[in-house]
Amino acid sequence: MIIGSEKDVTDAVLKEYARIKNPRLREIIAALIRHLHGFAREVKLTEEEFQAAIGYIVALGQRTTEAHNEAVLMSGSLGFSTLICLLNNGNRGQTETDANLLGPFWRMNSPRTKNGDTIVRSPTPGAALFVDARFKDTAGKPIAGAEVDVWHSSTEGFYENQDPIQADMNLRGKFTTDADGRIGFRSVKPAGYPIPIDGPVGALLRAAGRHNMRPAHLHFLAYKPGFKTLISQIYDPEDKNIETDVQFGVTRHLIGHYVKHNQARAGAPDVKAPWYSIEHTFVMEKGAARLPKPPITGKAEGERPQIPHLEAV
Ligand SMILES: [Fe+2]
User: Fold this and answer.
1) What was the pLDDT predicted at 298?
2) Whole-number pLDDT of residue 195
3) In this structure, are residues 26 and 18 in contact, taking their beta carbons and an 8 Å threshold?
4) Ligand 1 center to 119 CA (angstroms)
5) Distance between Cα 15 and ligand 1 center (Å)
6) Distance, CA 241 to ligand 1 centroid (Å)?
7) Residue 151 Cα, ligand 1 centroid: separation in angstroms?
8) What pLDDT was estimated at residue 92?
9) What global pTM score does this model have?
10) CA distance 175 to 156
11) If you measure from the C-alpha of residue 270 to the centroid of ligand 1, how many angstroms do you get, rounded to a whole number?
12) Which of 200, 255, 260, 302 sees the fewest Cβ atoms within 10 Å?
């Protein structure tokens, strides 16, 4: 089709890609073309703005390395990752869900740890935290024998892989749910942390006057054949950034029920008050048990990273 004017372009392009044989890919590409062209028409995109947009997309790729994925960070910063998560979990968005973002810091092969043990593997400052997590199916029946990875940042806001001062696999563990579908472990209460702002994500945050912090959270990944692998995070309601997560990960359902204890813990003289406990029941949906591709494979060496903080304005 020869194009006569601006009005002809979308139809000409749609017609060519209607030849895609795979029906799902055909549907996706057609909608992409309609929305992309519609977007340019709606905002009357100028040539300079178009060149800037291409520059952003190129920079997303150029900033991405084995240890950092700027495209995922941008998707999170635009709320797109959470939208995809909520559209695809909780009975396709019909009910509350424990599903949440994987984030960039899951590692394969966390050390197997017995229920009740600690995941603090090198001296780590912070208040003691006791976590009690239960895993159930959608009918409320406990799921025994699920493998559950847990991981979180230190009180200083670093995952061990970022931080040469922490032992390998500090604040990480792999647990197996017992007959009641439970795991439990001891750790330290984590802190929130900044996301990197030296690429296009940083430029977007500065333009919007947003800060670059994620509120404190615990990560969980539960795996058992017959169930959709559950990737979750439990957030700390006391974190000052709980309402303004830079990655839009916080959902009401995943705000943790932390209990602060000001007395000594019975039978645990080494636990100093105040200490914290938290309980959460996770629901796993039926589906395919698949593990994601690990976003990182190793541990940093040398100095602790310096990730600047942006103040919200
Ligand atoms: Fe995280």
Assistant:
1) 72
2) 93
3) yes
4) 16
5) 44
6) 14
7) 8
8) 87
9) 0.93
10) 25
11) 28
12) 302
pLDDT for 258: 96
The pLDDT assigned to 67 comes to 74
What spacing in Å lies between the alpha carbon of 217 and ligand 1's midpoint?
A: 6
Count of CB atoms situated within 10 Å of the CB of 160: 25
C-alpha 152 – ligand 1 centre gap (Å): 6
Structure tokens at 166: 């922490």
Q: Distance from the CA of 103 to the center of ligand 1, in angstroms?
A: 6
Instruction: Give the per-residue pLDDT at 6.
Output: 94
Burial string for 76-104 (b: 16+ CB within 10 Å, else e) reads bbeeebbeebbeebbeeeeeebbbbbbbb
Q: How far apart are CA 249 and CA 284, in angstroms?
A: 19
What DSSP assignment string belongs to 109-142? Answer: SPPB--TT-B---S---S-EEEEEEEEEETTS-B
In the reported structure, the alpha carbon of residue 30 is separated from the centroid of ligand 1 by a whole-number distance in angstroms of 35
User: Ligand 1 centre and the CA of 252: distance in Å?
Assistant: 17
User: If you write DSSP's letter for every residue of 196-213 in order, what string do you get?
Assistant: P-SSHHHHHHHHHT---E
Rounded-to-integer distance, Cα 10 and Cα 43, Å: 16
Positive or negative torsion for Cα 84, 89, 94, 96: negative
Token pair of 68, please?
């950092």
d(CA 218, CA 215): 10
pLDDT (0 to 100) of residue 28:
98
Tell me the CB-side half-sphere exposure of residue 71, using CA atoms within 13 A.
9
pLDDT in tens, 18-59: 999 999 999 999 999 999 999 999 999 999 999 999 999 999
Spell out, as residue ranges, where the chain has pLDDT lower than 70.
none
Helix (H) and strand (E) counts for the chain?
Answer: 7, 10
> Can the peptide bond before residue 274 be classed as cis, meaning omega within 30 degrees of 0?
yes
How far apart are alpha carbons 91 and 220 in whole angstroms?
20
